[in-house]
Amino acid sequence: MCLPLGLHAVDMTLLESVVKRKETYKRGQLLFRAGDRFDFIYAIRSGSVKTSVSTLDGRVQITGFHIAGELLGLSALASGQYSNEARALETTSVCRVEAERLDELAQKIPSLQYQMMKIMSGQIRQDEELMLLLGRRTAEERLAEYLLGLSMRFAARNYSPTQFRLTMSRGDIGNYLGIAEETVCRILTRFQNAGLIATKRRDVSLIDLRQLAAVARMAPAA
Amino acid sequence: MCLPLGLHAVDMTLLESVVKRKETYKRGQLLFRAGDRFDFIYAIRSGSVKTSVSTLDGRVQITGFHIAGELLGLSALASGQYSNEARALETTSVCRVEAERLDELAQKIPSLQYQMMKIMSGQIRQDEELMLLLGRRTAEERLAEYLLGLSMRFAARNYSPTQFRLTMSRGDIGNYLGIAEETVCRILTRFQNAGLIATKRRDVSLIDLRQLAAVARMAPAA
DNA sequence: AGCAATGCTTGATATAGATCAAAATATATC
DNA sequence: GATATATTTTGATCTATATCAAGCATTGCT
User: How many CB atoms lie within 10 A of CB B7?
Assistant: First the structure.
């Protein structure tokens, strides 16, 4: 099933009725753009997606990388328009829930709204973390934290937390972390020389999680 | 009334029953801290509040300044604990809604949950903007945008959009914008010399909104 | 298979803004 | 009302990271 919302089985069939199944996007394809009318909430089934916002003069800030089980489009609820754009990083399969039916549906399934609020609350918390990162951390800390964050998300989905493939480019990572592409490369090299990680292009192994956490100045990734 | 949620009159009386009225905080007092059990949603009646998150080693990032009509504590919903801390910048009066009664209440007033979702959705959007600011803008742009943002919020509340008092210190502003306190001062001086603003300590007048918007690289503040 | 396009890496140089230091002004305290 | 404390401002110097530049590796395309 598509939406990891912890609903009762009864509610599920109701929900199924508004979920349009299995849209697929190829690498580079847009799911939606900023300013588009709010049509759907998206849930990622497989693959990965980046979301971004931009200034009028064209500078872009990537605001998140999203993998299986995560929801997209929530910030459109307030205004009826998407505020960000979402683009597939690889072949990606999603479910979509029609926005219009969402109100109507929420009346019937109170727990749905509650779950969605929880998800949005979690999103706000995550955004606060990213602000802390962008405003207060050094480039090394950012990258170490980034790798550990990915690691934990993969772990939560029963993928290897120490070996994974980055679906985003160095440029995307740098943009997301507020540092230059070249700085990303240099620091990855530094980490590699220090024996913290091994990289080969987009494949990464985390070798010394404890020391990586020390660099990130976080608690060790339990 | 305290909560600007656009509810029906019928619902209002219900809501009143869970709203504890009129708590007041003095400058510097804490409303809640990160890690505290999630007790209340706060709505600001008057005054102003800063919210912040911190790293384990004590670095702080201010994530917002909040004025009358705004809600605090929403990000605690997901985990049952506040993720940030909130501190009064001046004498501040708030209403509090008990978190426990919120679930129960939401069942009775479907539109309440919907309104709260809209507010949270708006918060996510605002956070995205701040990320864009922290990740991609120069110090001058940040400060110009900051002043214009305040201006718009005051305008929306029928206060003067061109003359207001900053309730936060230069240090707070710098922290929020991800720049040093000294840089805030220098740039304010630069703006003043260029005839964009006038400052006297915490009192600010915006003189040339159009040019300020040009510096911020935003659309003119309609 | 071979070529083009894209993405990654490393090096050299430049700079925005941080940090350090200290004076000037305002606010709080007794 | 005087002294102490905190905030703001300005100046001098330093540094982390950006930018510019060029070569290398990989992937995709015909």
Answer: 17
Maximum CA extent, chain A: 57
With distances taken from each CA to the C1' atom of nucleotide D20, the closest residue turns out to be A182
Where b means 16+ CB within 10 Å and e means fewer, A176-215 reads bbbbeeebbeebbeebbeeebbeeeeeebebeebebbbeb
In tens, the pLDDT along A48-107 reads 999 998 877 778 889 999 988 888 988 898 888 999 999 999 999 888 888 888 777 777
Strand B30-32, strand B85-88: pairing: antiparallel
**What does pTM read for this prediction?**
0.84
Query: Rounded distance, CA A125 to CA A216, Å?
Result: 19
φ, ψ of residue A41 in degrees (nearest 5): -95, 135
On chain A, the residues whose CB falls within 8 A of the CB of B75 are 121-122, 124-125, 128
Nearest partner of A68 among A45, A94, A96, A92, judged by Cα: A45
Q: Give me the pLDDT at residue B219, please.
A: 38
| Rounded Cα–Cα distance for residues B138 and B126 (Å) | 19
Q: Say which residue, A115 or A44, is predicted with more confidence.
A: A44
The C-alpha of A103 sits at a distance from chain B's nearest C-alpha, in angstroms, of: 8
**Mean pLDDT of the B164-171 span:** 93
When pLDDT is cut at 50, 70 and 90, the band that residue B117 belongs to is confident
In sequence order, what are the residues at sequence separation of 6 or more whose Cβ sits closer than 8 angstroms to the Cβ of residue B1?
B12
Hey, where are the domains in chain A?
9-130, 137-215
Cα of A9 vs its chain's centroid, Å: 27
| Of residues B184 and B9, more confidently modeled | B184
DSSP state of B75: G
Amino acid B89 CA to nucleotide C26 C1' distance, rounded Å: 18
Contact A209, A221 (CB under 8 A): yes
CATH number, span A9-130: 2.60.120.10
- Alpha helices, H only, chain A: 9-18, 99-108, 110-136, 139-156, 170-177, 181-193, 209-216
Interface test with B, best of A75, A172, A173 (most B CBs within 10 A): A75
Question: What count of other Cβ atoms lies within 10 Å of the Cβ of residue A13?
Answer: 8
Domain A137-215 has CATH 1.20.1250.20: no
pLDDT > 70: percent of chain A: 88
3-state secondary structure of B80: coil
